[in-house]
Write a structure and sequence with these properties.
Protein name: Molecular chaperone Hsp33
Oligomer: single chain
GO molecular function: protein folding chaperone; unfolded protein binding
Pfam family, one: HSP33
Largest sheet: 6 strands, antiparallel
Bound molecules: zinc ion
Structural class: alpha+beta
Number of domains: 2
GO cellular component, one term: cytoplasm
CATH superfamily of the largest domain: Hsp33 domain
CATH topology of the largest domain: Hsp33 domain
Mean pLDDT: 93
Keywords: Chaperone, Cytoplasm, Disulfide bond, Redox-active center, Zinc
Strand content: 25-35%
Order of helices and strands: EEHHEEEEEHEEHHHEEEHHEEHH
CATH architecture of the largest domain: 3-Layer(bab) Sandwich
Radius of gyration: 21 Å
C-alpha cells in the first residue's frame, strides 16, 4: 500500500489523531499540472488536509474541501469518497503569485455529503494565511473541538503527507495539549514524513497507551464519465451544442480533475438530441 491514512487515539486521554501519506495521488494530480509552484504546493496540502479530516468522519459518501477567493486563486478543491478515491483541482490566474494571506474575500468550505436523500452539511470559515491555519480554525469554530494540523507537500519531490491531532471533549490539561502539538510541530518536513508513529507517539504521554487503527488505503480516482458529460451537454441544450459544432467542428470536453478527453462529433450530437435518447 503506498497511499493511506491511519488514525490513532490515546486510551486514557481525550485525544486522537491521524497521519497520512499521499505520494502517488499527489504525483497523479501534478502529472499534467502547469501552474505556479505555490498552487502545486496547495494542491498537495489540500489533499493531505482532506485525508486527515476524513478520519474523523463516519457514514459519508463524499467529502469536499474547497477554497475560493476573488483574487488570483479562484478555486482549490479536493474531493474524497468513502472508498478512499481522491481527486483535486485548482483554478488560478496565470503568472500571478498566489499568496493566501493576500486573497480578497477568501473562504474555505468543508462539505460532508451523506449521499442520496440524506443530509449535506457545510461548514464555512475565512481562509487564513495557510491551509493549516484555516483547518485549525474550522475545527475551533465549526466543530468546537480544537485540532492541530501539519500539512506537508513538496511538489518537486512529489511527496505529500502529514499529521493531525484533535482534542476531544473531556479533561485534558492545556499544557498536555500543547505538549502533544509540539511533537507534531517540531522537526523538518522530511523527518515528520519518515517518523514511525509506533515509536514517537508513545513518547508524548508515556503513561497512556496509544492505539493505532488499521490504515485505510487511498488512491487517485475521478468520478467523471461520458454519460455525465452527455447529461451536461443535454442540459445546455441543442442550440448551444450546434453552435459549438459549427464553429469548432466537434465538442471536446476535458475533465479538469483527470484530463480525460470526451469528444462528440456531429453524429454523436445528433444522437444525443434525438427524441428516443431524450427519454432515457
Ligand atoms: Zn475526470
Amino acid at each position: 500500500m503506498t497511499d493511506f491514512s491511519q488514525s490513532f487515539y490515546w486510551e486514557t486521554l481525550p485525544l486522537r489523531g491521524a497521519r497520512c501519506r499521499l505520494d502517488a495521488i499527489y504525483a497523479r494530480v501534478l502529472r499534467d499540472f502547469q501552474g505556479q509552484a505555490e498552487v502545486a504546493q496547495l494542491l498537495g496540502e489540500v489533499l493531505v488536509g482532506l485525508a486527515l479530516l476524513a478520519t474523523t468522519q463516519k457514514n459519508y459518501e463524499r467529502l469536499i474541501i474547497q477554497a475560493q477567493s476573488k483574487g488570483p486563486l479562484k478555486l482549490l478543491v479536493a474531493e474524497m469518497t468513502a472508498a478512499g478515491g481522491m481527486r483535486a483541482y485548482g483554478s488560478w490566474e496565470e503568472g500571478v503569485s498566489v499568496d493566501l494571506s493576500q486573497l480578497p474575500d477568501a473562504l474555505l468550505a468543508i462539505t460532508i455529503d451523506m449521499g442520496m436523500d440524506r443530509d449535506r452539511y457545510q461548514g464555512l470559515v475565512e481562509l487564513r494565511d495557510s491551509l493549516t491555519l484555516s483547518l485549525n480554525a474550522y475545527f475551533a469554530e465549526s466543530v468546537q473541538s480544537p485540532a492541530y494540523f501539519r500539512l506537508v507537500a513538496d511538489p518537486s519531490l512529489q511527496q505529500a503527507g502529514g499529521y493531525f491531532l484533535q482534542r476531544l471533549p473531556g479533561v485534558l490539561a492545556e499544557e498536555d495539549w500543547e505538549l502533544a502539538t509540539q511533537f507534531i510541530a517540531v522537526g523538518s518536513d522530511q523527518s515528520l514524513l519518515k517518523a514511525h508513529p509506533q515509536q514517537f507517539l508513545p513518547e508524548i504521554f508515556p503513561d497512556s497507551a496509544v492505539r493505532l487503527h488499521e490504515p485505510q488505503a487511498l488512491s487517485f480516482a475521478c468520478s467523471c464519465s461520458r454519460e455525465k458529460v452527455e447529461r451536461m451537454l443535454i442540459s445546455l441544450g441543442s442550440a448551444e451544442a450546434e453552435d459549438t459544432l459549427r464553429s469548432e467542428g466537434a465538442i471536446v470536453v476535458t475533465c479538469e480533475y483527470c484530463q480525460e478527453v470526451y469528444r462528440f462529433d456531429e453524429a454523436d450530437v445528433a444522437l444525443l438530441f434525438a427524441p428516443e435518447h431524450a427519454l432515457h
